[in-house]
Amino acid sequence: MPKPTHGGIEAGATGVAKSRRQYVVAGIASLLGTTIEWYDFYIYGTAAALIFNKIFFPAFDPITGTLASFATYSVGFFARPLGGLIFGHFGDRIGRKTMLLVTLLLMGVPTIAVGLIPSYQSIGYWAAGLLVLMRFLQGVAVGGEWGGAVLMAVEHAPEGKKGFFGSLPQTGVAPGLILSSLAMAAVAGLPEHEMLTWGWRVPFLASVLLVGVGWFIRMKVAESPDFEAMKAHGKEVKVPAFEVLKNHRGALLKIIGARLGEVTWFFTVTAFTLSYATMNVGLPKPLILNSVSIGATVGLFMMPLAGVLGDRIGHKRVFAFGAAAVCLFAFAFFDMLQTKSTGMVYLSMIVAIGLCYSFMYGPEGSLFSAQFPAEIRYSGISLGVQISGAIGGGLAPIVATFLMAKGHGDPQLVSWYLGGLAFVALLCALSMRSSSPSIATASSGSLGGYHTPQATEAK
């Protein structure tokens, strides 16, 4: 009887036996760990949209101050490819688990430090400089975090459920966004003076508790079976990133294109819209923050559903459905905000985050992992996701603000921008290898030399 395989390698070769407890713990750790790290990342984005222009850039006019604030916000995205390169390399060489512990600390400590940075009035532009440095470190951490969290979930998962388990670290984004939005909404209700002096710092300082919880949880997780088996077979690649660029450029470019539409949509909706809705439309801050929380709450349930659907009908089909939905909804989204109706604002975020985004983001873990063999998988998915994250997420608020100015306050150009990128994402996803029934497929140029049967769905 054939031995069970993990990513195309016989598990029996290392004595690694996956039990129900192993993959359940791995799934929970990925979910809760990414929740904590994304809370740290998003709390900065929310503060950049609503507060930092007044704290760190008060000498500028409101529009310039907002752009400067979003520029510091973007630094974190531009640092993410570096994090993906560094942690992807060591994740493929040393192990997934170790890298996840390091990224957790690298995210948490700078977040706490942001809450301690003096204002512009106290130390001048040194405040902005420290803010940029902390955001850079956050970006490096997130650049390495995503790939490791996804692989720990997917590589521990049983066959037929890789989509569901791969959606768990994706699902962690939703509660991270919920927690950050609720935290900022709570302090946004303070009087203006108290909010600007000490209130905004509380959500950042609270991260110390979350980091402690995350560390405890991730210490309980066993190393990835795919990684252990790959090491036992001596299939390590000396420089995984070079192998990705040499023999897997097509897969890398497809991931970048697919991810670009998704990440630009998300950060335009959750970061730029906070500024647009409050400054241009005149919506109250608590309303828009609460609507984001409601949309993310719906996403908390829809992302695992997207993963389950992917296991049944193919992850690229589920992703393509979400991309097509963005192509259409990008034009209705801003119209719904402009009604100033509480119900329509809530509905806009439910559709934008809970439905469109969830059906793109939920299946990404399993779908993107399917494009690379185990020995370069951490590097491959990290590079693809973080390069597109830097371009899409980092520039999204800035490009949207520029397009809004070009349109004299009319968001039509922003809608075309979002819809066009979503269409590119749709085409890229449909050209990818399917993640069913196995995620470990290798190209003929792979150095690993081991393969599993191709998915039943056409490449």
TrEMBL record:
<protein>
    <submittedName>
        <fullName>Shikimate transporter ShiA</fullName>
    </submittedName>
</protein>
<dbReference type="InterPro" id="IPR020846">
    <property type="entry name" value="MFS_dom"/>
</dbReference>
<keyword id="KW-1003">Cell membrane</keyword>
<keyword id="KW-0472">Membrane</keyword>
<feature type="transmembrane region" description="Helical">
    <location>
        <begin position="414"/>
        <end position="432"/>
    </location>
</feature>
<feature type="transmembrane region" description="Helical">
    <location>
        <begin position="287"/>
        <end position="306"/>
    </location>
</feature>
<feature type="domain" description="Major facilitator superfamily (MFS) profile">
    <location>
        <begin position="26"/>
        <end position="437"/>
    </location>
</feature>
<dbReference type="GO" id="GO:0005886">
    <property type="term" value="C:plasma membrane"/>
</dbReference>
<keyword id="KW-0812">Transmembrane</keyword>
<feature type="transmembrane region" description="Helical">
    <location>
        <begin position="343"/>
        <end position="362"/>
    </location>
</feature>
<keyword id="KW-0813">Transport</keyword>
<feature type="transmembrane region" description="Helical">
    <location>
        <begin position="164"/>
        <end position="186"/>
    </location>
</feature>
<feature type="transmembrane region" description="Helical">
    <location>
        <begin position="66"/>
        <end position="87"/>
    </location>
</feature>
<feature type="transmembrane region" description="Helical">
    <location>
        <begin position="99"/>
        <end position="117"/>
    </location>
</feature>
<feature type="transmembrane region" description="Helical">
    <location>
        <begin position="123"/>
        <end position="143"/>
    </location>
</feature>
<dbReference type="Pfam" id="PF07690">
    <property type="entry name" value="MFS_1"/>
</dbReference>
<feature type="region of interest" description="Disordered">
    <location>
        <begin position="439"/>
        <end position="459"/>
    </location>
</feature>
<feature type="transmembrane region" description="Helical">
    <location>
        <begin position="383"/>
        <end position="402"/>
    </location>
</feature>
<dbReference type="GO" id="GO:0022857">
    <property type="term" value="F:transmembrane transporter activity"/>
</dbReference>
<dbReference type="InterPro" id="IPR011701">
    <property type="entry name" value="MFS"/>
</dbReference>
<feature type="transmembrane region" description="Helical">
    <location>
        <begin position="263"/>
        <end position="281"/>
    </location>
</feature>
<feature type="transmembrane region" description="Helical">
    <location>
        <begin position="198"/>
        <end position="217"/>
    </location>
</feature>
<feature type="transmembrane region" description="Helical">
    <location>
        <begin position="318"/>
        <end position="337"/>
    </location>
</feature>
<dbReference type="InterPro" id="IPR036259">
    <property type="entry name" value="MFS_trans_sf"/>
</dbReference>
<keyword id="KW-1133">Transmembrane helix</keyword>
